[in-house]
Write a structure and sequence with these properties.
The complex is a heterodimer of chains A (262) and B (99). Chain A is 63% helix and 0% strand. Chain A has nine helices and no strands. Chain A is globular, with a radius of gyration of 18 Å. Chain B has 99 residues and is of the alpha+beta class. Chain B has one domain (11-88): Ubiquitin-like (UB roll), CATH 3.10.20.520. Chain B has helices at residues 35-46, 71-75, 93-98, and strands at 11-17, 25-31, 54-59. The chains are: A mainly alpha (262), B alpha+beta (99). At the A-B interface, helix 2 and helix 5 of A face helix 1 of B.
Chain lengths: 262, 99
């Protein structure tokens, strides 16, 4: 039985659901970014990618700590290290292999626009002051990720023939994973009903607008909106890539559960 | 260093202001394709540990520097003119405290 067989029945359960998938998105995306450490195209960009990875893993960590508190757990590691892929609620976009630099930046950009709008909406909806404080802190870094990745979209798109071709391919490949960011399911409906979340569909129009603006600047072509869209990762139906990512990420902690730094 | 036919990004010098009202200090240098990216790279390279409140980036080749040979004519004459230094005056205690 996976976590998803149970629809949230109380406001607290609904809140837990939302915070957990926010955290899962950030942990998995952060891990993918961390794979660039030492492989960045330039020293400065290597640092930038590692910074963003640390930012996102930091976001995940504070959100897992919040969930752990709701559940009465002592520490947040459980959610990161002791769940299987079917229990992760991250969107599929963040688990795809890191690809080339254009792919990484295109994903960062599409994700950051969504994060920007999502956090704005959440900071409006959520009443819990502790959580609102956590989100407010993350939001500053999200604004930076958006700026950094947006500037790269412009430079890659309006750059050389090769950079343009690579980033256009990346967008085309990523597009089928963007639908999931705006679709609902029984869990998300419950979170909306308990007023801890806004209908994800309402984020779609402003997301398209912000993405379109940058792609126009970058002289890139908006991919076809009416294509097959991947769905189901938020309910645990992931791509084959997540299992391998988790195998690497969780191996040490699972093999030596009592290991410590000292 | 000539960067004309190099495939490397141009070099930039980074300055940061530690506090309001304080002068900008040199932090180091970095490579970036243009000014906006230089600013972002400066943030990632030099501003991660609460170093300051503002950043300047300047193309390194826009800085005109003195050469080692200039050191004599530029700096030596000052050695014989100690009266140019203000240390012969006693500084009021209130002023000392502030600095």
């Amino acid at each position: 039985m996976s976590t998803f067989d149970e629809i949230p029945k109380t406001q607290q359960e609904a809140l837990r659901t939302v915070v957990l998938w926010l955290a899962d998105d950030r942990l998995i995306h952060g891990h993918r970014l961390s794979e660039w450490a030492g492989h960045g195209p330039e020293l400065e960009e290597d640092l930038a990618l590692a910074n963003m990875a640390l930012d996102m893993i930091g976001h995940a960590s504070s959100l897992y700590a919040y969930v752990a508190k709701l559940e009465g757990r002592e520490e947040e590691d459980y959610h990161a290290y002791f769940r299987d892929d079917i229990d992760f609620t991250n969107c599929a976009m963040v688990e795809l292999p890191r690809g080339d630099f254009a792919f990484t930046m295109a994903r960062q950009f599409l994700f950051s626009v969504h994060a920007f709008l999502l956090y704005q909406a959440l900071m409006d909806v959520l009443e819990d002051e502790e959580l609102a404080g956590i989100l407010k802190k993350h939001f500053k870094e999200i604004r930076y990720h958006l700026r950094h990745s947006g500037e790269w979209m412009r430079r890659l798109g309006d750059g050389t023939d090769e950079s343009r071709e690579r980033v256009q391919h990346a967008l085309d490949d990523l597009w089928m994973y963007t639908g999931e960011l705006f679709t609902s399911n029984a869990h998300i409906e419950a979170t909306v009903r308990f007023e801890v979340f806004t209908d994800p569909a309402t984020l779609h129009a402003p997301w398209m607008e912000m993405v379109r603006q940058v792609l126009d600047d970058a002289t890139l072509t908006m991919p076809d909106q009416n294509q097959y869209m991947f769905d189901g990762a938020r309910q645990g139906r992931h791509t084959e890539h997540l299992g391998r990512l988790l195998a690497e990420m969780q191996f040490l902690r699972r093999s030596y559960p009592d290991a410590s730094w000292t | 260093m000539s960067s004309n036919d190099s495939t490397e990004w141009p070099l930039w010098e980074v300055f940061y202001q530690p506090k309001n009202g304080k002068p900008f200090e040199h932090a180091g240098s970095l490579h970036a394709p243009d000014a906006e990216m230089a600013l972002l790279n400066a943030r990632d390279t030099y501003a991660r540990r609460n170093e300051g409140i503002a950043i300047w980036v300047v193309p390194s080749d826009q800085i005109t520097a003195s050469t080692p040979e200039d050191a004599g004519p530029f700096f030596d004459p000052a050695n014989e003119k100690p009266y140019r230094h203000p240390q012969f005056y006693s500084v009021p205690r209130a002023v000392k405290k502030r600095s």
